[in-house]
Amino acid sequence: MTIPPWQQLAETKRQAILSAIPEKWRLKDPIPSPAEQRDVTGAYIEQFLTPREIEITEADAIGILAHTTTGKWTAVEVTEAFCHRAALAHQLVNCLHEIFFTTALETARRLDAHFAKHSRPLGPLHGLPISLKDQFHIPGVETTMGYVGWINTFQGTPNDGRNRTSQSQLVTDLLASGAILYVKTSVPMTLMCGETINNIITYTSNPKNRLLSSGGSSGGEGALIALRGSPAGFGTDIGGSIRIPAVFNGLFGIRPSSGRIPYQGAANSMDGQSTILSVVGPLARSAGDLMVLFKAVLRRAPWLTDPLVLEIPWRGDVERETRELVRGMPGRLAFGIMWDDGAVVPHPPIQRAMKIVEETVRELGHTLVKWTPPSHQTAAKLAMRVYDLDGGADIRHHLALSGETPAAQVILEAEGTPQKTALEVAALNVEKREYQKLYMDYWNSTAQLTGTGRSVEAVIYPCAPHAAVIPTQFATVGYTSVINVLDYTSVAIPVTHVDKNIDLVRGQGRPLSDVDLKVHYDYDPNVYDGAPAGVQLFGRRLQEEKILVLAEYLAGKVKEATANKIVVGPEL
Amino acid sequence: MTIPPWQQLAETKRQAILSAIPEKWRLKDPIPSPAEQRDVTGAYIEQFLTPREIEITEADAIGILAHTTTGKWTAVEVTEAFCHRAALAHQLVNCLHEIFFTTALETARRLDAHFAKHSRPLGPLHGLPISLKDQFHIPGVETTMGYVGWINTFQGTPNDGRNRTSQSQLVTDLLASGAILYVKTSVPMTLMCGETINNIITYTSNPKNRLLSSGGSSGGEGALIALRGSPAGFGTDIGGSIRIPAVFNGLFGIRPSSGRIPYQGAANSMDGQSTILSVVGPLARSAGDLMVLFKAVLRRAPWLTDPLVLEIPWRGDVERETRELVRGMPGRLAFGIMWDDGAVVPHPPIQRAMKIVEETVRELGHTLVKWTPPSHQTAAKLAMRVYDLDGGADIRHHLALSGETPAAQVILEAEGTPQKTALEVAALNVEKREYQKLYMDYWNSTAQLTGTGRSVEAVIYPCAPHAAVIPTQFATVGYTSVINVLDYTSVAIPVTHVDKNIDLVRGQGRPLSDVDLKVHYDYDPNVYDGAPAGVQLFGRRLQEEKILVLAEYLAGKVKEATANKIVVGPEL
């Protein structure tokens, strides 16, 4: 048997994805170029939908569940509407790896039958379509993770009985909770990239501005949810891969600490590298939606089925205490704020997003503490060394399976880079722990500065130095990877959009680094115009309940403030 | 400066330890040989104590705290009594590395002053002397961890400002809780040994039978507490190092899952090896005492000061629910029972200890499930590979600092054994996770067998194939290391003592392995006579609250049963 060249394999797979879209949902006319039609969200995509489909797909997860768990909407009609919209989304921005609408509709019919029979939902996610990043295995569905060499294999191994039969634990838990799975979303080959590009679906563009990136590595999730082709989905994050696509697409996304959401039975890069664990977390349109998904998964007691999950159920007491704190008198909270990572000054729109949040917190009467922790650069450099522990061996192996050319954006160690030794791995583990210790001591020390009797609750910080980025210009994961080194909880929050009339290019004094120089040079307000811009709000380790409540609170107040036209201009 | 030969360094240190014992507490006459006087506990050691000292030191931790936290006993008199008894213990069995009675008495005086002033204790451990394994740093005190090359250094580094100034987090937490630190206990060089031997204190013998070992690596703790030279102490466990000395000395000891008790700032072997983390846990005379210590440490919120500690406070609800379960109707619980590890059949006294527990459980009407999990040998072999990840480099380095000769018992990889690579470390992490997953699936499956509606609560299993062992004959950590691979909670429980008239040598059919053959051959009822024999009760990950309550319950019932002279003989 001759193995077809990788280009042919990729092309066949690309066509197979498109062919999985029912004829009736295929776009008949060529779509306008990105230059002609940057924004394909909202009215643009809705031209192809019925009013009923629009009503359903514009609802958020909480809104959908309010209808599906009470029998007001059937699972079938909700599923059909999202299948249709996801199909359109893929044709507009290349965001899907796998489409399995038939299976999804079968699931939906079973759920409707369940409801008809028992007059109650199957579980807390009854009838909610959920998209999954293409790392999760679902029976009947392939997993390529963006590698051409994984097509028709199980994670690169041909003739493996687990191909299209394996089921990741998260899939089990979601299905048992009543969710409907219907698509798997695009990722960059290797997963180690802040944009989403591979030789199968090519490039996943940003739906708000197709001249830009949807982010990575959970870029397909970001793009699909931004287009309302999914109400919510799950991605993974080892250096920012949930938070980057979240802010690039105007969404919320949580990178929980490791040990809360099951990773068991999912594909991964460099599996077994345990110095910095990749984690699973949801992306959605609101912090409330993230909470619904988080709670539903924890209700399944994943610590009984995933050895890496901790027995920490959803802590309703922490949620309640935090809600009381934010409902209480102004000035009862203290937030840290940190404007840059010491290496790259963020672009004007990100600075403006930070200022909007800062002003909102100030207006609410809360304390702002200038955050001066142990160097984030130390952590960013440590993370880069962790990502390269094996000298790129795992990635090279999977690229070599097909011989495909890696995308330019994928960071690859030079051929022949040596692996680290067990002693070097151990030394890195110690270095990480010592950094974590310094950081927690610093955090504890802020109790002296807040006036609340407690240390800072959470820290406001950019997710990246730029908004949804111009392709090939993703600069650094340093803003996000520090959180992975610390294993802290961080929630990405959408704040605003780039406005070429406000977010002007301006001088910033002496560059902090060569990367700073390049990032500054790369900023082009005309191209970035319309791109979502957000920040992250991070808390200490395993603080998901608290940080989600704070993110919901702050994002709500930011929305009120911006709706009231408190415009923060470049003069601030 | 010429560096003295290691023998001289070791001798000087050995004398310095003895010199730290006040003249008045030194034994004037030579003690009888082990053959003449095997057992130096109880009446033997008490001949050197006053009735008041005996009254104090015979009390357990709960009993002492009942007096010291209410002002009935002063911290000073309690401290003096334990200092005296610990000094005697060391002279009898070589169980101390560091003696700092003067500092201890200063602490005690401050505590008494605090109580006099405020009429309440400083914290939950007010006035309780606690011994620590010689891995924890205390200002003013050295840490050698059994290495001659660490004398006058900080963990082997000379002229390091941290020598005698560093303070481990557990030390901070214990002192802040009102505990009194006064001694550090002996360990085998490298810590990787089931006996306690090093070139400084030589050999730590078993106080119940000085022909035998006190176990390891927390052997000094085991011996000291057995002699009531300490009411309770903290050890560490990466392969059995808490549980082995606990059962060898007729004590309770808990190996908690990783992430509960702070290890921050303590010395260790192969620091940074994270595939199997060493953990800290208490040893004491009862499960109740273990609970008191565990709760006191968690009250300090160690997750705010140790990056590896999880934010899981003591779960009083789990403790209460478990107490209700054991108080309820008989037959409401199900225990797994597993008689051997598939490689080595335990000696007759360990089989008898198992039978005593089995009979007790049966008499109580609970269900016993024959435990047939994924092979424990797989885990034991995996653990051995983890301990050797660096090819012995760390251990060799610390031995080479002084050029000392390693003890025969210390397992050392052959010189020049290569380190593992980052990819091999990652593969081992995956292998471990997959074993954990198989094991948890098996555990879940037992819900079909128990009749309780739940899976098995805990499993009864030997801690070692022998009772407190004949020196150089410690055979295998396979019985304990499986728990470290699983990261499960396990509590060592004392059950009985070897009785040469009951625990006769007997044939056992075809040997399971070469080690089995040797262990069988090594059994000598006459030498073992009087040695403590116990078992472990293990539960799933992070089940400390539950397993401690179950251990307290079962051990209490075993004690009742044996007091009622239900003798289990070899005929059973």
TrEMBL record, chains A, B:
One of its GO terms (molecular function) is amidase activity. InterPro entries: Amidase_CS (IPR020556), Amidase_dom (IPR023631), AS_sf (IPR036928). The keyword Hydrolase applies. It catalyses: a monocarboxylic acid amide + H2O = a monocarboxylate + NH4(+). Pfam families: Amidase. Substrate binds at residues 191, 217, 238-241. It comes from the Eukaryota. It comes from Aspergillus ellipticus CBS 707.79. PROSITE patterns: AMIDASES (PS00571). This is amidase. Belongs to the amidase family. Its EC number is 3.5.1.4. Keywords: Hydrolase. The active site is at 133 (charge relay system), 217 (charge relay system), 241 (acyl-ester intermediate).
